[in-house]
Amino acid sequence: MSYAPRPQLLRRARPAVLVTAAALLGATTLAPARAAEPVPPKTPVAIGSGGAVSSVDPDATAAGLKVLRQGGNAVDAAVATAAALGVTEPYSAGIGGGGYFVYYDARSKRVSTIDGRETAPATMPHDAFIDPKTGKPYPFTPELVTSGVSVGTPGTAATWAAALESWGTRSLKQALQPAIGIASKGFVVDQTFHDQTNDNKVRFAAFTPTAKLYLPGGDAPSVGTRFKNPDLANTYKLLGDKGTSAFYRGPLAHEIAQSAQHPPKAPDTTLPVPPGYLTEADLKAYDVIHQKPTKVGYRGLDVYGMAPSSSGGSTVGEALNILEKQRLSSMPRDKALHYYLDASALAFADRGAYVGDPAYVDVPLKTLLSDKFAATRACLIKPDKALPTPTAAGSLKGKGCPTATPKTFEDNGKSTTHLTATDRWGNVVSYTLTIEQTGGSGIVVPGRGFLLNNELTDFSTEWKADDPNRIEGGKRPRSSMSPTIVLRHGKPFLAVGSPGGSTIITTVLQTLVNRVDLGMTLPEAIAAPRASHRNNATVTAEPEFITAYDSTLKPYGYTLVKSGDEFTSAAEIGAVAALEFLPHGRVLAAAEPVRRGGGAAGVVNPR
Ligand code: GLU
After folding, report:
1. CB–CB of 497/432 below 8 Å?
2. What pTM was computed for the model?
3. Which pathway does the database say it acts in (predicted)?
4. The CATH classification of domain 45-292+416-606, taken from the options 3.90.1150.10, 3.30.420.10, 3.60.20.40, 3.40.50.360
């Protein structure tokens, strides 16, 4: 659905902020900064062996590396990293949300996935997003974004348990220990965490428990102070002791359902906050889905991704199939980018027409991922001219260059987080998780220390019978999350993923094209400026991309428009965390050098 502008999720830049705080406060009286734990150096690239982790956050990456050093495997490390992100990046991801976990098993050489997407409550009506007072759709902001009605049944706790049970070597209790430590001892608030909280101040102030946790004394926590979340530490301890049944049944399930049905509104808020439908029965009925991954061949590589309910694997896969028909590596850069942009636009047209939760709609996944279908789409791209957009979805009957009703996409989210992990045995995890909006629904479950998602805003607002992403009780809203693992000759080559709403798809696609076709190293492929064509009339692009390519892409007919929104000072698209597997058992872990303040890559044994 269309997104209204949303606050950008900025990464915390802790070390820099501590220096600033020290300078401001005077080193001798610096109690808060002195209390800070040593922060692992934030580094966007690390090369070595014995295992690796890449995420947006140094504490979270360190949590994963600790588990690897103690003998845990990639799955154990991924869960530990994700749980730590729930503490330090609580506005992006946590047990109040959902995600998609992709796993390569070194022993069986197979890729498996877990769909831990949120579900719509069983009793959610088709017109849930229509305001009964006006008969019109609720405005996206603030009604749908800050609401109980957009809260889906969370899947993250079940995902962690399922991943550990299937492939891990540690119990949930063990995997949660590093995160419990961070939540109990706290982390030092820096400018970015402070700013994120401020961006959400009106929303957070609308709920008594959220204000209590994130606006202590009525304001965002100050830079240099230690932020503790003992409630979340206790919730994690509960999950560790009792298992996820303590989340999906019993008192906590009751409190989650109550928080969605009767959001704990502050008495003085003027926000409307439509109530939701989530019940204890929904939580009890929730289960993850062990899914076959999507798979396409691309220039001798096997690219594995997430099948629906995410549109990530099918859309990235279709675009790669279209692009494979061109020799991008021998083209001038502007021409290669032209093919990248139009392949994205075509794949997005098909995503809109055909992709939804396969439990509710018939998704023609096999066709969408077939070379034959790609051929009927690739023929539409003219060598010297951009496709007029929005372009139509393709015919599934195999007829080339068809026409149908176009669909466009506006959502451009910046929440969510991605992590990748590998271990000394060569297992690999690529995991994207989210609570949707930065700050999710804004609702903290009272006394439990975590925010509930607003993931159901990913459904289409208005119900149309032919829309694969229409609201249905129990259904998973269509996602764009694209955790990806690429094999070469059956062995891991790359693992990559990103946040960014529907731009996730183009960010993963562009990173792959940069690395595989355009001669860039993985760090270069991540750092390169991004553009995202989602079958709209214009192409969203970072300012650096516009500076570099506007004059050469304009003659094709593209209109590049700066990404970002009214809240955003830096117009960034995505935040990649990735791994590349090098010869002789070495791994290159890579994260963003600049976007979101830079990510954190680490290896067990640096080279
Ligand atoms: N809810 C989005 C999705 O599943 C991700 C949110 C974001 O990245 O802003 O596609």
Report:
1. yes
2. 0.92
3. Sulfur metabolism; glutathione metabolism
4. 3.60.20.40
